[in-house]
Amino acid sequence: MVARKSVCLCRLADGIRAAQVRFGRFLANRRVTVEGVIESWGDRTKLAAKGLHVLAIQDTSEVRFPTTEENRRDLGKIKKGNVFGVLLHAMLGIDAKSGTCLGLLGGKVWTRDDIVKAPHAERPLSEKESHRWLTTAYQAKEVLSQASMITFIGDRESDFFAYWASVPGNNVHLISRAMNDHALLEGGTLLAAVERIAIADRGTIELRERANRRPREAKVGLRFGTVVLKRPWTAKKDDLPDSVTVNLVQVKEPHPPKDVEPITWLLLTTHAVNSAADAWQIVDWYKQRWIIEQFFRELKTQGLQIEDSQLETANRLLKLVAIAAIAAAIIIQLVQARDGRNAQLASLAFTPSEIETLKALNKKLEGKTELQKNPHKPGSLAWAAWVIAKLGGWNGYPSSKPPGPITFHHGLTYFRAFAEGWAFRDVCMP
To answer: What backbone phi and psi angles, to 5 degrees, belong to 55?
Structure first.
């Protein structure tokens, strides 16, 4: 999948019918389970995270598959209306110091059934979809058992009392964007308490481009403080405490550009926040959520095009999504490796035969001057990324704009053809 930038079984099999049948049988095999694939997600990440402070970023994305009234492909609804597919909840491990993607940590892939359940407030947490935030965190704790510190980062959906009460521990912290106006133990609510806190500092936040937002800089005011969240009546789990103490950090844009929605982030965290510098650090860590948004885009619209799969059953589609998630994470690592920030090996993404192809191509693509040489250690992922980017049209000069996902997509497409030809060199040449 990484090499071909595709999840199409025909493409993965190079049009060879027997290979395509083997891939289909693999996905149909009852011994191949979604849970088994997800359990393998953290195998490499565990080693890469040893001794590091890891930002464990989790989020959910809807993967829509086309259906008809006659053939729903055993899929459940993922949105209101006539929209069917599967849901992917994934957690990526990020080195807090360098921002390097270490790999997948855990998650869940599922499709909804049509069974009418009890009202949300009356169901125990274990029967709610929000329970995935807890189970994924528990998976990650096992994978990251040798990390020096873990900081779980989530968007608004992760802001619920049981999450704050159950997940933190020794060297295990949370950062979540507030969704609820929590009741406070001393009376009043969270949002009212924030407004009573004076602005402690002012600064500028660089906002990355998103589907509904252009990249820009936002001038914001910074507040921080401490609050005690009161256990809500809807928290049915008996062993939860009556309250949880958390720190808050708010960045708010008072004067946004015309016709632009102002930035207001209210972040809750278990990290100590004793100064403006501590508060800005929380904001910087939260901004790393952008990486998991890139991960989902790589899986869908900008890369693997998972939603174009023609597999006919939900069982196979669920497995395909779980496998494709691994490929998407590797591609993110490949894009990040372009600047040589990490010491990951090319074998993370390429087979031994493909690495031999990369060596041959590297000799051809390097120029005569030092500026035109591959600056990275041979055999490293950064070294491989330089070759792929050159194939994709990047000129290789340090002063040029770094290659992006589209450049790597083109480079991988060309590389696939070279790799296949190289594999046949001993067969076709006398």
So the answer is: -85, 115
